[in-house]
Design brief:
This protein is an all-beta fold and 300 residues long. It has no helices and 26 strands.
């Protein structure tokens, strides 16, 4: 852990930015939380980090090697859907609210990104929506993204430098689907992908440059692997206890999942080489509907 004295005189706390770590932020305790905790992959040490600029429930996280971003979310009482974009800078351990905002306020979106941009799709603002945003990390600007094939919330989102994969989710009428959409970063074209094996929503995703891992959702412990190059899916190793409203992130070597809607402080890791599943260090505070991102993104 390190502390940095900001210009305002406040202290910023965070893990050593030279050592890869995950950030778990926000979520629901009883109302929306601003808590942030770091998880160092190599040591499995969990520690408190600088709190969010404002508490959020059901935001979604993405990251590069220098910043992590949380998009959207919700205030619990009174119910207020948010278009806020919060940025965490690894070198300072500080959160800031961006001047840019999502084009539509919503929670439970899915995101996939590369080193320059993030694609944020779907979500819920009282009804499941088909809406997309494209966020540029360098300029902190938002433009509309090409829409997916249908309105969904709680999708899985993963990808690499060339493609974003958005799969499953809850649809209008309270059902869940196995639908997969592919988003080409270079052209903003959307095309159909291979359906996953189990319809569910409110799970979590992580990935490597070659595959996405779609885990949990709808109270299941299911894990599925989606290979980007040939659009094939395969079953992964089951994750033990089923959960929903969990957060996922990781590196190119492992995926890390934390929290659940119970709420829970439990974490579990999935190592891609060997498809092994291990319990991790508990988070400090039990939360559900939280967001996560990694200082060493697995997808690029």
């Amino acid at each position: 852990m390190f502390e940095l004295l900001l210009a305002t005189g406040a202290k910023s706390m965070g893990p050593d930015p030279a050592i890869p770590f995950a950030i778990f932020g926000g979520g629901r305790v009883t109302v929306e939380s601003a808590l942030t905790e770091s998880y160092v992959y190599s040591t499995a040490v969990v520690a408190s980090a600088t709190q969010l600029a404002q508490g959020e429930v059901s935001a979604i996280g993405t990251s590069t090697y220098s910043v992590g971003i949380m998009f959207g979310g919700m205030k619990v009482s009174p119910t207020t859907y948010r278009a806020t974009i919060q940025k965490y800078t690894y070198s300072s351990g500080a959160w800031n609210i961006s001047s840019a905002m999502l084009g539509m306020a919503r929670r439970r979106s899915a995101a996939a990104g590369n080193a320059t941009q993030a694609i944020i799709q779907g979500g819920d603002n009282g009804s499941r929506v088909n809406y997309g945003d494209k966020y540029s990390y360098g300029s902190e600007t938002i433009v509309a993204a090409t829409l997916l094939s249908s309105a969904r919330e709680g999708m899985f989102g993963s990808g690499n430098g060339t493609v974003g994969v958005f799969s499953a989710g809850g649809v209008l009428g309270a059902g869940t689907v196995t639908t997969t959409d592919l988003y080409a970063h270079a052209t903003d074209a959307v095309s159909g992908g291979t359906a996953i094996g189990t319809a569910r929503y409110l799970g979590a995703a992580a990935g490597t440059p070659t595959l996405g891992l779609f885990a949990f959702g709808s109270g299941t412990a299911t894990a599925e692997k989606y290979t980007y190059a040939n659009n094939t899916r395969a079953n992964g190793t089951g994750l033990g206890t089923g959960r929903s409203n969990t957060a996922g992130t990781g590196t190119a070597e492992l995926a890390l999942f934390g929290g659940s809607g119970t709420p829970s402080a439990t974490t579990v890791s999935y190592t891609y080489a060997g498809d092994t599943v291990l319990g991790g260090t508990n988070l400090i505070t039990a939360r559900g509907e939280l967001a996560a991102f990694s200082s060493s993104p697995g997808g690029f």
